[in-house]
Write a structure and sequence with these properties.
This protein has about 210 residues and is of the alpha/beta class. It has one domain (about 20-205): Rossmann fold, CATH 3.40.50. It has eight helices and ten strands. Helix 1 (about 25-35) runs parallel beside helix 2 (about 55-60).
């Protein structure tokens, strides 16, 4: 939906994302880079374009020789990014470091072996699928093991979630990752400049 210069992505009556708040989506990229550090020819995989906050933040961090693959399964999201929301994309989809894939990020993860330095997932509301039940597979044992295999040594799997989930955090540790769970404020842009809600990002590093 569009109202003036503001945009919102809805699932029926549930707001998934809006342009008034982007702090945690940006933190998904910037905090991953802080933990990962500079790497020559870094390969990043981002699952879910959304409104491009994470992609733009990633491009602001990685070097000129990096490659950032962005995977979006809903073609209409990209159509809006190149259409009504073009002024907000800041040319990120045309950046030479970006490879856009219209498909399921799970397919790329499953087929990769030590290919990525970072895998960032913001494909749903978190480990409990809201938009597509099949998204749950990314967060279960087989999906986590596939992510482990797809990462290079010391690589990071970063996962955004709307809520805390003890069972999922344990599942990530059981998959062999070193896990850091961080609470991130969703900085708002309302009249009072409120800080918005609290979200969770898990940074799971391959030993």
């Amino acid at each position: 939906m569009q109202r003036g210069d503001e945009f919102t992505i809805l699932l029926e009556h549930t707001e998934l994302m809006g342009t008034r708040a982007s702090g945690s989506e940006e933190a998904l990229a910037t905090m991953t880079h802080e933990r990962l550090g500079a790497r020559d020819g870094a390969e990043w995989l981002i699952g879910g374009y959304g409104m491009g906050f994470t992609l733009r933040a990633a491009l602001g961090c990685v070097a000129d020789d990096a490659c950032v693959t962005i995977v979006e399964i809903v073609p209409e999201i990209i159509e809006w990014a190149r259409g009504p929301m073009h002024s907000l994309t800041d040319g990120c989809l045309d950046d030479p470091r970006v490879m856009l894939v219209n498909g399921d990020v799970a397919v790329l993860i499953d087929s990769a072996r030590e290919a990525y330095d970072a895998i960032l997932l913001d494909v749903d509301n978190g480990p409990d699928g809201l938009t597509r039940e099949v998204n749950d597979e990314l967060y279960h044992r087989d999906g986590l093991q596939a992510a482990m295999a797809a990462l290079r040594h010391g690589g990071i799997l970063a996962i955004w979630s709307a809520e805390h989930d003890d069972a999922f955090a344990k599942r990530v540790r059981d998959a062999g990752f070193d896990v850091d769970e961080v609470v991130v404020r969703e900085v708002g842009t309302g009249a009072k400049g409120d800080q918005g809600g609290r979200h969770i990002i898990w940074f799971a590093q391959k030993p």
